[in-house]
Design brief:
Strand content: 25-35%
Distance between the termini: 26 Å
Strand order of the largest sheet: 1-2-3
Bound molecules: zinc ion
Helix content: 10-25%
Number of strands: 6
CATH topology: NE0471 N-terminal domain-like
Largest sheet: 3 strands, antiparallel
Radius of gyration: 14 Å
Number of domains: 1
Length: about 110
């Protein structure tokens, strides 16, 4: 992915669960993202998950705990006992909203 140009680390202003199957992230720059838990688990950057492709069990995609670690990392604990740590850089790259998919380098200007 070619988002390597932006030097500023995205920071999280708010974090919340959206229903049972997604989380919402409000970024300090005004952007908002919705991440389906399934995507977050499948994109888990830890060595175990990178090596083992696709864990689709229901337990593996049920969230037990969601926490911010400061404003530059997010911690997720899953019902199958797995733990995932995302830096905000990794998380922001996972955003699939229209803005991020089409123009990842364009500054977000709120209309
Ligand atoms: Zn993992
Ligand atoms: Zn986005």
């Amino acid at each position: 992915m070619a988002i390597g140009k932006s030097k500023t680390v995205p920071r999280i202003r708010g974090l919340n669960e959206v229903g049972r199957y997604a989380i919402g992230v409000q970024w300090a720059d005004g952007h908002e993202s919705i991440f389906p838990l399934r995507n977050l688990r499948n994109a888990c950057p830890c060595n175990t998950c990178v090596a083992a492709e696709g864990n689709d069990s229901a337990e593996s995609q049920r969230l037990l705990q969601l926490s911010r670690l400061g404003d530059s990392a997010v911690y997720l604990a899953w019902a199958d006992g797995h733990e995932t740590l995302y830096t905000t850089v990794q998380l922001r790259e996972l955003c699939r909203c229209a803005l991020c998919v089409q123009e990842p380098e364009r500054p977000i200007t709120g209309n």
